[in-house]
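Open question from group meeting: does this chain pack into something compact, or does most of it stay loose? Before anyone orders reagents, we agreed to write out a predicted structure and look at it together. Recording both the input and the output here so the notebook holds the full record.
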Amino acid sequence: MPVEFSVTVRMKKRLEDIISREKLSKFLEESAKFVFTEVKEHTPVRTGKLRESISLIKINDLHYVIGSPLEYAVFVEKGTRPHIIRPKRARALRFELGGQTVFAAYVVQPSRGGLVITPKRRRALKFEIPRKVVFAKKVEHPGTEPRSFFARALQKYRAQLRKIWKSVMGGG
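Structure tokens returned:
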């Protein structure tokens, strides 16, 4: 899922009359560095693997690529629709649930006639949900919201484009 900064042959011919190749190259380099920094800064982090995979590659003076080789990067950026997950190499999916600490103002126990338990000395009850291994033939995934870290970086770049241009061209 790369973002590319490059000058096409047609653009290059038009721009050669206005500015030098060196300044154009410097502008593209500064633009790519700006977007790369913004993408890295806004990449969501769970394990850090996605953020670490984001790279800036210089193809030549007029072509830069920013992206990640991870297959799931595009799904984090654009989100996913609800979908069904089925096992591919096994008869069942295996995953873990629980294993977390929960705080609650009260707990209702339906098995004990709707008994309500409230804390005596504290503001909340604290209890552990034990980790449990679950097997399933399929899982109905609710989908994920798009995180748009590349899109946000490009929006910020558009807002800073003139400033970068002026700093490279010497206009302020």
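Observations to bring back to the group:
The chain has five helices and eleven strands.
Residues 3-78+144-169 form one domain.
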